[in-house]
Each structure stands twice: as C-alpha cells, then as structure tokens.
Amino acid sequence: MTRKSNNRLQRDGVPVPKMRAPKLRLWDEVENLRIEATRVLGNSSLVTPILRSEDMVKAAAEQGKLGDLRSAAKLLAEDTTKFSERLKEIATQHEGRKGPDRGVDDMMKAIAVGEQYRDFIMSYNQVVLPTIKEITDIAEGATEQIVQDMQAAEAVPEAEEASA
Questions:
Q1: What is the rounded distance in angstroms from the CA atom of residue 110 to the CA atom of residue 104?
Q2: How far is CA 86 from CA 74, 93, 112, 132, in A?
Q3: Which of 50, 57, 84, 105 lies in the 20 to 30 Å Cα band around 25?
C-alpha cells in the first residue's frame, strides 16, 4: 500500500500533523568551533620539550642545524602569538551567546563567526604546522645523533674491559 501525500490527506479530511524544523543551536556549535580552534592552537606547545632540551639543542648544534632550530622556534613563537590574538578577536564576537539563534540576522552572524573559526583552523594548519614539522625533523636528526653518541659511549667502556 502506498502512502498518501499530505495534500491528498487534507482533501480527504484527515488531519495532517505539521512538521517543524528542529531548532538549531548555532551558538553552541560556534562555541564548539572555538574549543576546537583553541585545541589546534595548543598543538604548537607540543614541541616545547624539544626546544627546551639541552641535549637536543647540543645535538642540533653538532649537526649545524642550531640556526635553523632557532629561526623555526622564533617563527613559531611569533605565529602562535598572532594566531592567539586572532582567536581572541573571533571569540569576542560571540561572547555570552548560547543556544539557538534569535532570528535570521542572528543566524547569519553565527554562520559568519563559524566561518571565521574554519578559516582560522585552515590558516593555522597552512602556516604553523610546517614550522612544527621543521622543528620535529631537526629533532629527529638530533635524536639519531644522541643515540649514536650514547652507543659510542657504551662501546668505549666495553672495549676497555675487553683489552684489560
């Protein structure tokens, strides 16, 4: 049996329930985007232990990469500061707003702020992530150097014991 259309049901005198679109909670979604953008911004702090490690810095210097490491760290700090300020600017545009939108103008504002967060995240990924990758690549090479140095240091006492 096929279902009758709403128009046919109305003609036949059958009451048709009115369907309402669900109320969108756009400002809650914008807040979720803010939280995600804040999480993304925090990715730059993941390389802080690398930059503070004396062994890493020493190994990078031995490989002639200390200048690269310093310039990447400086660039990362500058970019992170700029992106942090931009994130605060976006967040002030929806401060105190929660729940569903309050009409078409409010909905358009929520969409515009959401697009700013999307652009923020995309820009961050294009600008900051390559710098983070550069730092981790230098650290990877430095780690290999540290491991080689440790293996060489362990081999020296073993060679002395064997000759004694």
A1: 10
A2: 19, 11, 15, 19
A3: 84
pLDDT of residue 158: 59
- Model confidence band, residue 3 (pLDDT cutoffs 50, 70, 90): confident
What global pTM score does this model have?
0.73
Q: Choose between 140 and 78: higher pLDDT.
A: 78
Structural domain total, the chain:
1
Whether 160 maps to a domain, the answer reads no
DSSP 164: -
Q: Is 4 left (phi over 0), alpha (psi -120 to 50) or beta?
A: beta
Alpha helices in the chain (DSSP H): 6-11, 26-41, 48-52, 54-62, 66-92, 104-163
96 in a structural domain: yes
In a domain? residue 156: no
Distance between CA atoms of residues 66 and 141, nearest Å: 12
Alpha-carbon gap, residue 36 to 48, rounded angstroms: 20
The boundaries of the domain holding residue 36 are 23-143
Establish if 150 belongs to a structural domain: no
**Counts for the chain of helices (H) and strands (E), in that order:** 6, 0
**pLDDT over 70 percentage in the chain:** 85
